[in-house]
From TrEMBL:
PANTHER family: REGUCALCIN (PTHR10907). Substrate binds at residue 101. It comes from the Bacteria. InterPro entries: 6-blade_b-propeller_TolB-like, SGL, SMP-30. This is Sugar lactone lactonase YvrE. SUPFAM superfamilies: Calcium-dependent phosphotriesterase (SSF63829). GO terms for biological process: L-ascorbic acid biosynthetic process. Its cofactor is Zn(2+). Pfam families: SGL (PF08450). A divalent metal cation binds at residues 16, 157, 206. Residues 15-265 form the SMP-30/Gluconolactonase/LRE-like region domain. One of its GO terms (molecular function) is gluconolactonase activity.
Length: 315
């Protein structure tokens, strides 16, 4: 197996959410805390960056050069060619206390995004709600806004679907637990949530991806490795990484046989970051198995809205 390579010395504060664009053969990813959308081209090594006005948790590809961005302030359609931002929906939570975190599209192209607690005013008590948890995972239902897609979790992460689309994986990093639920592909609803895997002390289950064999690969935040679980939740292997704070893998490259992995430097004290240059890099390695085709947001929310308006005008 090819060794882990640093493909972009990004010094990201909170690299996250890599998604491979099959159409562009490029990797989109974000920096949540130095808010920016990035696009990396493995053929040239070039990394493009678009600064964002607020923390960006995750995004969905819509079409070539166009993405939907989950910013703390809401969901926006962003055209990377013109820099045009089109407002789609407000955030479904109190943005003074929460911000979007991990998200992604199901195998039918519905977009989901979770949250993590980040009070703007640290003096305000961290009121997580009556049950002591955070917010649910949110499903973007177009003109109908957001629907709840899970019980509340504190640090939403690890969203992925099985190859047949009928199992949804979702984790709570704070609870060190990955859940799996039965997923209805027709309605976008998840039921019968149960524990899929728990991780050890000293690590948090972070972003994840499922491969074509149905194995769940997640970044072990704080432990410098990826964990690969079989479809029954048994740990099958650990893959050592050169950074301690790895955040999420994504399949990409020719035949979806490369694993790209983001990482974060924010947990490292500022004074130590120069001596820890791997934290915040983007990595690539040969994947243990090929990945699944990444899904794009369908339909394009702006086109769907136009259709909705013209239907209403006709009626
Ligand atoms: O900001 C983030 O941090 C969490 C880990 S922690 O809450 O700081 O322990 C990480 O899991 C998450 O994905 C990341 O975006």
């Amino acid at each position: 197996m090819r060794n882990v390579e640093v493909v972009c010395r990004a010094s990201a504060l909170n690299g996250e959410g890599p998604v491979w664009s099959e159409a562009e053969q490029r990797l989109y990813w974000v920096d949540i805390r130095a808010p920016a959308l990035h696009r990396f081209d493995p053929a040239t090594g070039r990394n493009e960056t678009w600064g964002m006005p607020a923390w960006i948790g995750c995004f969905a590809l819509i079409e070539t050069d166009v993405v939907a961005l989950a910013l703390r302030t809401g969901l926006f359609r962003f055209d990377t060619r013109s820099g045009t931002m089109t407002f789609l929906a407000p955030a479904p939570f109190d943005p003074r206390r929460f911000t979007f975190n991990d998200g992604g599209c199901d195998r039918s192209g519905r977009f989901f995004a979770g949250t993590m607690l980040d009070p703007i005013d640290p003096l305000e008590p961290a009121d997580l709600g009556t049950d002591g948890n955070g917010t649910p995972l949110w499903r973007y239902d177009g003109a109908a806004g957001w629907g709840c897609a899970s019980p509340p979790v504190q640090t939403s992460n690890g969203l992925a679907w099985s190859p047949d689309g009928r199992t949804m994986y979702h984790s709570d990093t704070a609870q060190k637990t990955v859940f799996r639920s039965d997923y209805d592909t027709a309605t976008g609803t998840a039921e019968n949530r149960r524990v899929f895997a728990r991780v050890e002390e000293g690590m948090g289950p972070d972003g994840a991806a499922v491969d074509a064999d149905g194995f769940y690969l997640c970044a072990a935040f704080g432990a410098g490795c990826l964990l690969r679980f079989d479809p029954d939740g048994k740990l099958e292997r650990r893959i050592a990484m050169p950074a301690r704070f790895v955040t999420m893998p994504a399949f990409g490259g020719v035949d979806l046989s490369t694993l790209f992995v983001t990482s974060a430097s924010f947990p490292v004290p500022e004074k130590d970051r120069v001596s820890r240059p791997m934290e915040g890099c983007l990595f690539a390695l040969e994947a243990p198995a090929r990945g699944l085709t990444p899904h794009v947001l369908t339909p394009d929310p702006v086109a769907a809205d136009k259709e909705h308006r013209s239907d209403k005008a006709i009626a």
